Amino acid sequence: LQGIIQAYKSGITLRGNTTSLGRWDFSGSFFFSISAITTIGYGNLSPSTAVGRIFCIVFALFGIPLNLVLLNEIGQLMLLGVQHCARRLEEVFHWQNKASFLMKTCALVTGLLLFLLLPPLLFSDKEGWSYEEGFYYSFITLSTIGFGDYVIGMNPDRTYPSWYKNVISLWILFGMAWLALVIKFCINILE
Fold this sequence. Notes:
The chain has 191 residues and is mainly alpha-helical. The chain has a single domain (1-190), classed as Helix Hairpins (Orthogonal Bundle), CATH 1.10.287. It has helices at 2-9, 26-37, 50-93, 97-117, 119-127, 131-142, 164-190.
């Protein structure tokens, strides 16, 4: 009873009659790793031992720079794909500036669909969130703000498929790379 009272004073509230023990299974650990190296840090899961905290620090010291390299490479591959498609359009249709503009527009629209507009539908289905809440989660996550007010796979009243957190982890990596390209493009326009 003392533990329950202390948990309540610490801000923990009872949400259901079940316990989620799967937080440190492969999917939960992978999701934690992605949220750590992307610096999202939702705050819903953290190491509780001294050894775990030290490991997390060392992991982050190496993981964050490696993740930045990975995101840069993914972004460059996306950009090369867009540039390659634009060159092919120029060759086939003999368009000069139109092909580049068309491909950038297509890349922007495709990214909007894949990373911001369609994922909220999945979150609505799996989490029970409204579309607006799913869109909010998508942007807050991909921009690495990560408030922690919405985190996937944490509702003890729901059963999540085994692939769910892994797919969302990959969505985060590719979505962050895409959003970084969009932000870089906006910076170039502003400059």
